[in-house]
Design brief:
It contains twelve helices and nine strands. By secondary structure, it is α/β, with parallel strands linked by helices. It has two domains: 149 residues, Rossmann fold; 152 residues, 3-Layer(aba) Sandwich (Rossmann fold). The strands form two sheets. Strands 7-6-5-8-9 form a five-stranded parallel sheet. It has a four-stranded parallel sheet with strand order 2-1-3-4, sandwiched between helices. The chain is globular. The C terminus is likely disordered.
């Protein structure tokens, strides 16, 4: 595997290999010196055309813990804001000797365009493209689920996961449906009809318009924020109405099985899709998801950039 563009590109074996590698690399965080020499001499470029905090910092930390050189390239304040095209930006990075480009872009398909062109020879990792996909988020979510509900090993066969919220605009939901299905989980999407994608019937999952019918039968519930910045029209009457019908509060959480966990890819809108008491409860694993993101992205960089082969040689 040379690139990571979509969760659909990963076979069960690929996904389990990444998760197993992430589990091995997670031990680095417990060391006094949190670094491995694996990718010394390699250059990783974070090419972010959209604002990001968690994903960009997570990739930067992951690359640095593997001893790679990191270049952070933000579109704002760069030549991109002056009208430079994706092609010219990519050619510039190629001239600088980028071994991997981690790209977040507002246009769906931008990472695929970069990977299939002859503009750049290094690996391309999709860190979120438009409303399309976010495969490393799905991987870290699977890693978190496996840790809590599968003793940290194997796949997720038989696991029941509900993804609730703005499915229509969510690249996280799309990648999670694809990856969790590959790993054997049973996924149910929950949203109002206006926030459910057209053609969702063909997705490899179930869907529902009622959160209260789904919660008692799941092992994990993942809440998604309403992406108001991507909305041009009114998709529901009011924030209060949305929260009442689809928000997760303490009363609703009480209907979850005792072992079930609460997840959120962030950033959270407290008081809308999730209440403060639920977000701060012991069953919420959002902080752990962020920590797991570093280990998973270390694994992705390690495997894509040939760390295993180089160590062997």
């Amino acid at each position: 595997m040379r690139h990571l563009l979509s969760a659909a590109d990963l076979s069960r074996g690929d996904a389990v290999l990444i998760l197993d590698t992430a589990a091995e690399l997670a031990s680095v965080t417990d060391r006094s010196i949190k670094k491995l020499p694996t990718l010394r001499g390699r250059t990783v470029v974070n090419l972010f055309f959209e604002d990001s905090t968690r994903t960009r910092i997570s990739f930067e930390l992951a690359a640095k813990r593997l001893s790679a050189d990191v270049i952070n390239f933000a579109a704002k304040g760069s030549s991109v804001s002056k009208g430079e095209s994706l092609k010219d930006t990519a050619l510039t990075l190629e001239a600088m000797g980028a071994d991997a480009v981690v790209i977040r872009h507002g246009a769906s398909g931008a990472p695929h365009r970069l990977a299939t062109s002859d503009w750049i020879q290094g690996s391309v990792i999709n860190a979120g493209d438009g409303t399309h996909e976010h495969p490393t988020q799905a991987l870290l979510d699977a890693f978190t689920l496996r840790h809590h509900l599968r003793d940290g090993s194997g796949d997720l066969a038989g696991l029941r996961v509900a993804i609730v919220g703005d499915i229509l605009h969510s690249r996280v939901a799309r990648s999670n449906v694809l990856l969790l299905q590959t790993l054997g989980a049973d996924v149910t999407l929950v949203a109002p009809p206006t926030l459910m994608p057209l053609g969702v019937e063909s997705w490899p999952c179930r869907f529902s318009y009622r959160i209260d019918e789904v919660l008692p039968d799941v092992d994990a519930v993942m809440m998604l924020r309403v992406q108001a910045e991507r909305m041009q029209d009114a998709y529901f009457p009011s924030a209060l109405e949305y929260s009442r019908l689809f928000g997760l509060d303490a009363a609703r959480m009480a209907h979850l099985p005792e072992h079930a966990i609460v997840m959120h890819p962030g950033p959270m809108n407290r008081g809308m899709e999730i209440s403060a008491d639920v977000a701060d409860s012991p069953r919420a694993v959002m902080v752990e998801q962020v920590a797991n993101g570093v280990s998973v992205r270390m694994a992705v960089l390690y495997l894509l950039l040939g760390g295993r082969q180089e160590e062997t040689s």
